[in-house]
Design brief:
The chain has four helices and four strands, in the order αβαβααββ. It has 132 residues and is α+β, with helices and mostly antiparallel strands. The model has no long low-confidence stretch (mean pLDDT 91).
Length: 132
């Protein structure tokens, strides 16, 4: 994906794009560097959600927006079934969040203004990094 991204941005002539292969627990960026952060399709796979969110917050400017796409045990979709969630966690390390759980993780990680949208088992949300 990194090679594809680099090729795409080079072809499009997109300036100021940097690609890095890194672990979410140790992002190779200075504190308060980014105006926003996206986490699309991976938060549910991290071993420790709070550590991952804290590291994202570290590299974000105060009041910067975090946007996330992940999974929730909603009222619709296949992940509403407990056995499916347990199987997904056991066989694929896929954590399915509850809304209150996610809000607690965000608060513990330095975020506020949790704005969730649930569609079936899909959770998209934004939150803002708390000011220093």
């Amino acid at each position: 994906m990194l090679r594809q991204g680099a090729a795409y941005t080079a072809k499009q002539g997109t300036p100021n794009v940097h690609f890095a292969r890194a672990r979410v627990e140790a992002l190779p960026f200075e504190d308060s560097l980014f105006d926003a952060a996206l986490c699309c399709g991976s938060l549910h796979l991290f071993a420790d959600t709070v550590i991952a969110l804290r590291e994202m917050a570290r590299v974000m400017k105060p009041a910067a927006t975090l946007s996330v796409f992940t999974f929730v045990a909603g009222r619709g979709g296949v992940l509403k079934f407990r056995r499916v969630r347990e199987w997904s966690l056991r066989n694929h390390s896929l954590h399915v969040f509850g809304l209150s759980e996610m809000e607690q993780y965000l608060t513990a990680s330095g975020f506020k203004d949790f704005q969730p949208e649930v569609s079936g088992s899909i959770l998209t949300f934004s939150a803002r990094k708390q000011a220093a």
